[in-house]
Design goal:
heterodimer; A: 481 residues; FAD/NAD(P)-binding domain; 8-stranded mixed sheet; B: alpha/beta; 5-stranded parallel sheet; 33% strand
Chain lengths: 481, 446
């Protein structure tokens, strides 16, 4: 029997797992997808919110602030890209000033330092390409950026290095309580545990409602994005938000930790939590709003468009802790929409400690602190590159041209504790295929390396797990009619 | 050079290693048809100290995966396959003892022509070149660049990637195929996939004309009854793990889909042949000025870029339709690089700007350096029209002076147009500031 089963290997599930790795206990993480970070954690804005827009007194506000404070140190420890370029919340109407002042008050109450309301002249000095019709902005120097999927993968590795097991491609169907244990029913059989933690993102509501008398309602809220190439110079060094207007909630224009520009997201409530399709209307709509902040925005260097689904709970706040009105031993972190990424390290710490306290787990005597991810070849100096090649000649073979990712790095992505098993898994960990050609050149090479490292045939390598085969067969295969 | 960072990595015992800057006369980046032809021409012109760097494991470039025939009709007056065509240049390069280093990725070129490359065999190397020829070719525009709505499953390939999987690796990317875009690689792959037992449901082209060669439309689509749907596009992709279908629609003159014309096609594969983009990321690090139209370097008639001693040729300069012309252009670039190394200086030559006028896009070269004295050789101007023109006049004009105004039966964006400036015309251009190309319904000038 497991001490703990965590359902969901997104950033929250992995943060909880990493925290539980500091305790001595048997911990298992289950996820329906073939990799960690396959839901909202892989497709979001990557913003480390400073905490000015969370309603004071809510869990959202408290965990946002706490998470934002933890993030720089955690990213340094894990070797995950992080930056703090600051942000502007733009108001395009005179009336926006009052709203910005209210946000500023909120920032002060929440303990976000350094914010101030600035006028057009100062805005255009900070970000010359902003729409000159802007009136005011809230300047938020503490606003940061993180690579969300790299953070999630690194948290998973850190957990796995301390004995947490990950079983992927395992969809949880139901939860049942039985005297002293929870039974987790999956499409791969049943697992028993003393405590279960529901971190299942958009799927969390259904599991919660199976076991609790107090029902929740999770709405999948889709956000569509444009990702642009990292051609220099960057249009903006900082993140631009828009104050909500009569036209609805705004979109952001932001650099990523890798120097790409990101536009989006839309906000559409949709019935299907797995429907990550983009739509014509959504993309056109996002672009129209982008041009409010950045009138000369062009789609000429767009690399890809994508969408992510956040789990919106109707109450509006995070729901974290022991599941109310349920047998004991059931815990949850649900409704983790923005600023959920920022809050994740804090949620992981609190929920992990809480469950460990409940189970009376001892500290892990053999705890291994995280090993920072090595510097990517693309970020090395020439001298570092020479040394890297001396230690491993696979650093001499560039696999992904657009992002300058070497064979050594692709192999390491697969060999990591929670390693990549498919093309998208490699892409999220080391960026092969993340660039302007979108894997046109490197896909086959990445497939060869995955096949070699994992012992499957070339033909079996998938894009993102079962059902996503890249190839239909070998030449000359007889076709089944 | 990040000494501090280096030593902070710990005691690797390598801190004292000196970074060797290897001097060399000429580096050619890319061993595809452009790089090989340039290298051969430079060597023949007497450049002895040269090196070709190629990122793939074999020289030959994209020709290696183009196993269909039709190459070399102009240059060799023979119909060759891609590998056969490439082999002729590879063999000649070998006979001329031109060093070609494969598996070597160039990471950086500075405006001072310091070239940094990495390979498994040699690690990181730095060269100080006196001249550089850019011959990196082009890449395919991916799905993301088009922002096609829908899901993002497996089964979406650029046509060239599919070609590599089939021809080089022996795998089938899918069985029920829709092709978006009618570029030549897409047309070739329509036939190739059909011959391997796949069913190609349609080739869908946004524009009212194909960007592919007419012979490919006939031989690859019509001969196999594959419908070519002009003025159509893909408006949605379906499927979670793998493509399960696409929705296509007719587009209006504004190229936006027309409501009510949507049609769903079940398929497991979407191939994209929606344009080629010159691979100029390295050119930018070298400070080379690029043309927003061709997306290649701005060059003069000696294929020299805005950075002295840096030359560009082949598909990295502008996307060609036929490899024969890539080779021809690249030989001129190779000779010009040799001339540069031997001290030829075109500063004394008269400079004339070549300007795209009405109907003309992306003329190369963008600048003519006309030497003094008697001329014996002409210069080819290459461009594409902005749409299809039937029985229109192509006019070359400098100020009021019309050099030539000639009726062309057809000008189409799918085929690069060439107009030769004769030595007489060049001499007449001396003293002129610009040469303008236009396409008009009527003859220009007297």
């Amino acid at each position: 029997m497991q001490d703990v089963i965590i359902i969901g290997a997104g950033v929250v599930g992995c943060a909880v797992a990493q925290r539980l790795g500091t305790y001595a206990g048997k911990v298992l993480v289950l996820d329906a997808q073939g990799d960690v970070s396959c839901g909202a954690s892989k497709a979001n804005s990557g913003i480390v919110h400073a905490g000015y827009d969370a309603v004071p007194g809510t869990d959202k506000a408290r965990l946002n602030i706490k998470g934002a404070r933890m993030m720089p140190g955690l990213c340094r420890q894990l070797g995950v890209p992080f930056g703090k370029p600051g942000a502007l919340v733009l108001a395009f109407e005179e009336a926006g000033k009052a709203q910005l002042e209210a946000l500023l008050k909120q920032a002060e109450v929440n303990g976000v330092p350094g914010c101030r309301v600035i006028g057009r002249k100062e805005i255009l000095k900070m970000a010359p390409l902003v729409n000159p019709e802007v009136h005011y902005a809230l300047y938020v120097p503490e606003s940061g950026l993180v690579s969300p999927y790299e953070l999630t993968c690194a948290l998973a590795d850190a957990a796995a290095e301390n004995g947490v097991r990950f079983q992927l491609n395992t969809k949880v169907r139901a939860l049942r309580h039985q005297t002293d244990r929870w039974l987790v029913e999956t499409d791969q059989g049943e697992f028993a545990c003393r405590a279960v933690i529901n971190c299942a993102g958009v799927g969390a509501g259904e599991l919660h409602n199976q076991i609790s008398g107090r029902q929740v309602s999770i709405t999948p809220r889709r956000g569509q994005y444009y990702l642009l190439d990292h051609t220099l110079p960057l249009a903006f060094q900082m993140t631009l938000f828009q104050l909500p207007t009569r036209m609805g909630k705004g979109v952001l224009v932001s650099p990523t930790t890798h120097g790409n520009m990101l536009y989006g997201p839309t906000a559409e409530d949709i019935p299907d939590g797995l429907d990550t399709a983009t739509t014509q209307e959504g993309l056109y709509g996002a672009m129209a709003k982008v041009r409010l902040s950045f009138p000369t925005a062009s789609t000429a260097t767009v690399i890809t468009t994508f969408s992510g689904i956040r789990a919106h709970e109707k109450g509006g706040d995070f729901i974290i802790g022991a599941v109310e009105d349920a047998p004991e031993g059931a815990f949850e972190a649900i409704g983790i929409e923005s600023p959920g990424l920022t809050a994740a390290p804090a949620i992981g710490e609190e929920l992990g400690d809480w469950v460990a306290y409940y189970l009376k787990l001892e500290k892990n005597p053999r705890y291994i602190p995280p090993t920072p991810l090595p510097k990517p070849f693309s970020a090395m100096t020439d001298a570092e590159r020479r040394i890297a090649w001396q230690t491993d000649p696979d650093y001499g073979r560039v696999i992904c041209r657009c992002e300058t990712v070497t064979e050594a790095e692709v192999r390491r992505a697969i060999r990591r504790p929670v390693g990549a098993r498919d093309i998208d898994g490699v892409k999220r960990r080391v960026r092969a295929g993340m660039g302007r050609c979108q894997g046109g050149f490197c896909m086959a090479r990445v497939m060869e390396i995955i096949a070699e490292e994992t012992g499957v045939s070339f033909q079996e390598v998938s894009k993102n797990g079962p059902g996503s085969a890249v190839l239909s067969g070998q030449l000359g295969d007889v076709r089944d009619e | 050079m990040g000494r501090g960072a280096l030593c902070s990595l710990g005691n690797w015992g390598m801190c004292g290693m000196s970074e060797q800057l290897k001097p060399i006369d000429l580096i050619i980046i890319g061993a595809g048809p452009a790089g090989l032809a340039a290298a051969i021409a430079a060597k023949r012109a007497g450049v002895m100290d040269l090196l070709v760097l190629e990122r793939e494991e074999e020289p030959g470039g994209i020709l290696n995966q183009c196993i269909h025939n039709g190459f070399g009709l102009h240059r060799f007056k023979e119909e060759l396959t891609g590998p056969e065509y490439a082999h002729r240049d590879i063999r000649e390069a070998r006979e001329l003892a031109i060093p070609v280093r494969t598996g070597t990725m160039v990471l950086d070129i500075t405006p001072e022509k310091i070239v940094t490359a990495v390979s498994r065999e040699h690690g990181l190397e730095t060269f100080r070149a006196r001249a550089v020829i850019l011959a990196m070719g082009c890449r395919e525009r991916p799905r993301g660049a088009l922002a096609i709505p829908g899901t993002r499953p497996a089964g979406i390939f650029s046509a060239g990637t599919a070609q590599k999987l089939v021809n080089m690796m022996g795998y089938m990317p899918g069985r029920e195929v829709v092709i978006l875009g009618s570029g030549d690689i897409g047309l070739i792959m329509a036939r190739r996939m059909t011959l391997q037992g796949a069913r190609v449901r349609a080739c869908v082209e946004l524009m009212p004309y194909s960007s592919g060669l007419n012979r490919n439309i006939v031989q690859c689509l019509e001969d196999y009854d594959i419908p070519l749907l002009l003025s159509h596009t893909v408006v949605d992709v379906q499927g979670r793990g793998r493509v399960s279908g696409v929705t296509i629609a007719r587009v209006g003159d504004d190229r936006r889909p027309i409501p009510g014309t949507y049609q769903q096609i079940p398929c497991d594969t979407l191939l994209l042949s929606v344009g080629l983009i010159p691979e100029n990321e390295l050119s930018l690090t070298a400070g080379v000025e690029l043309s927003p139209i061709t997306q290649g370097a701005v060059v003069n008639n000696r294929f020299q870029t805005s950075v002295p001693g840096v030359f560009a040729c082949g598909n990295v300069l502008h996307v060609h339709d036929l490899v024969d012309f890539v080779s021809q252009e690249s030989m001129l670039a190779g000779q010009a690089a040799a001339g540069y190394l031997f001290g030829y200086d075109d500063k004394a030559a008269a400079g004339v700007a070549v300007v795209d006028g009405q109907g003309v896009r992306g003329t190369v070269p963008q600048r003519l350096m006309i030497p003094q004295g008697e001329l014996t050789e002409g210069i080819d101007l290459m461009f594409r029209p902005d749409r299809v023109y039937n029985h229109h006049y192509l006019t070359l004009q400098a100020g009021d002076q019309v050099l030539i105004s000639r009726r062309r039966r057809i000008l189409t964006p799918g085929e690069m147009a060439v107009e030769r400036l004769t030595p007489e015309m060049l001499m007449a251009l001396r003293g002129q500031a610009e040469l303008r190309l236009t396409i008009t319904p009527d003859k220009q000038g007297a």
